[in-house]
Design a protein that fits this description.
39% of the residues lie in helices and 28% in strands. It is of the alpha+beta class. The mean pLDDT is 86. The chain contains 15 helices and 17 strands. Helix 3 runs antiparallel to helix 6 and helix 12 runs antiparallel to helix 14 (382-403). InterPro entries: H_kinase_PdtaS_GAF_sf, HATPase_C_sf, HATPase_dom, His_kinase_dom, PAS_4, PdtaS_GAF, Sig_transdc_His_kin_sub2_dim/P. Its EC number is 2.7.13.3.
Length: 487
């Protein structure tokens, strides 16, 4: 059976960033499935019409489709539901299936103002039984997420959607916050998890971050990352431990257009997981946890820089803060990659691709940017990864800002060779087809980014050179010496 990647690879007109967005949606769409008690199907366009590329079932209620849906054309099973959504933006109908009534809705999946797929939601109508308060709250939150898919504001690019140990799901506990962080609804499992921490009073109607800060046994100020999650302002995950109990929280901010009107906070009691984890903790697990915490702290720093930048009236100061935020974000991305593996090294090709796409995605250019990565960085040790990541990020950012501000192409090539017992040599070339080097360019007198690159290359015992590319553009070549990676 074909995978989602297989379908996306042959979908006409789909850009690499579009495919990544659809992968992010499928990684996180269990939230919508569980909140709406519904099966979800993702449809992508092919020459013969719309075809089902992915399918998930809810864990909170009965499934609608026992049989496999992936690979089927929309018209075979769902009539014109998907076609009408593609034409009108949304569609809805109820159809009979034996003794059951199936309620079906479909909306466009959008990114950067374009339709890149259709998402359909399918659930069984339970006529004659009034909805419980839990079902009403779940349905409202599910509708919010469904609308955000159509507006292109969900999934969040920074959301920790990967399946990780202890990651909370809807069935573990759900809290709905308003825009001020006040609890509008808390599911029974969420209430139980907070009670385990020692909170004796009510939760609904209270500001969640205040509930967390007033817990007995708190010996220090609340971590900034936890505060942002508890307020529903950042699509992050954080943990809270007190009095031998612990919970994991994950926030999903809710938007209408560009306005945040609340958040969903998933809550899971992870006390037993932590107890067993402590018994089985190894050196590798300890290092991963350190990387994870460093990443969380760096994300907090980046968020604070971003918030400060919005309040600075001076344009140059705002630009400098934005650059600092980007550099901190690069380091956070590397520590995130380190926190998901067991080794003290990471596959840098994946980091390079993510970093390249992130810069291109937010580039303020008047034309499109085509990016390409060839060769391989290989495994890079943690102590070298930050420097290599910052060097690459600065060179690509400079190419976008100064080389191809009207659009163009960027090509990154990496070659790794082993030359002696002291380590490997990494040779990287970054080429753009833009304006070329300015007259009289000298790295020692260039901007901060160029000086950062030069300093870090020298720290790694390497060399760097800037040249004009043929027929036009800029070519930057650097080589650094990396420590060997134990197999």
């Amino acid at each position: 059976m074909r995978t989602l990647a297989d379908f996306l690879r042959i979908t006409p007109g789909l850009e690499a960033e579009d495919a990544e967005w659809l992968h992010l949606l499928v990684e996180d769409w269990h939230l919508l499935a569980d909140l709406s008690f519904s099966d979800l199907v993702l449809w992508v366009e092919h020459e013969g019409g719309w075809v089902a590329a992915a399918h998930t079932r809810p864990m909170t209620g009965p499934m609608v489709f026992v049989e496999e849906v992936v690979g089927q054309p929309a018209s075979n099973v769902f009539g014109d539901l998907v076609d009408r959504a593609a034409q009108e933006g949304q569609s809805e109908h109820v159809r009979e299936r034996g003794q059951d009534l199936i309620h079906e809705r479909a909306r466009t999946v959008r990114r950067a103002g374009r339709t890149i797929g259709i998402l359909s939601v399918h659930d069984q109508l339970d006529s004659g039984r009034p909805q419980t308060r839990l079902e009403e709250a779940y349905a409202e939150m599910g509708d919010d997420l469904f609308l955000m898919v159509a507006e292109g504001t969900w999934p969040h690019a920074t959301s920790p959607s990967g399946a990780r140990r202890g990651a909370p799901r809807v069935g573990d506990g759900v809290i709905r916050l308003d825009e001020a962080g006040r609890v509008e609804y808390a599911s029974p499992n969420a209430l139980s998890a907070i009670r385990q921490l020692g909170h004796p009073g009510p939760v609904e109607g209270e500001v969640l971050v205040q509930v967390m800060s007033d817990l007995p046994g708190q010996t220090s100020h609340m971590d900034e990352g936890l505060a942002l999650v508890a307020m529903g302002r950042a699509a992050w995950r954080s943990d809270l431990e007190t009095r031998g109990a612990a919970i994991s929280l994950r926030a999903v901010p809710l938007y209408r257009g560009r306005t945040r009107h609340g958040a969903i906070v998933l809550v899971r009691d992870v006390s037993e997981l932590l107890r067993r984890g402590a018994e089985l903790m190894t050196k590798d697990q300890t290092i991963r946890e350190i990387h994870h915490r460093v990443k969380n702290n760096l994300q907090t720093v980046a968020a604070l820089l971003r918030m400060q930048g919005r309040r600075v009236p001076d344009t140059s100061a705002r630009t400098a803060l934005g650059e600092a935020e980007r550099r901190v974000g690069v380091i956070a991305m590397i520590y995130e990659a380190l926190s998901t593996g067991f080794a003290e090294a990471l596959d840098f090709d994946d980091v390079a691709v993510r970093g390249l796409r992130a810069i291109v995605e937010v580039a303020r250019t008047s034309g499109a940017i085509d990016s390409q990565l060839t060769g391989s960085f290989g495994l890079v040790r943690a102590e070298d990864a930050t420097a290599v990541g910052l060097i690459l990020s600065e060179l690509v950012q400079n190419a976008v800002e100064h080389g191809i501000p009207e659009g163009g192409s960027i090509h990154v090539d990496a070659q790794r060779t082993t030359e002696d017992d002291e380590g490997d040599i990494l040779r990287v070339t970054v080429v753009d087809d833009g304006r070329g080097l300015p007259t009289g360019f000298r790295p020692s007198r260039a901007g901060l980014g160029t000086r950062i690159v030069t300093s870090m290359v020298h720290d790694l015992g390497g060399q760097i050179r800037w040249d004009d590319a043929e027929p036009h553009g800029t070519r930057v070549r650097f080589s650094v010496r990396l420590g060997g990676v134990e197999s």
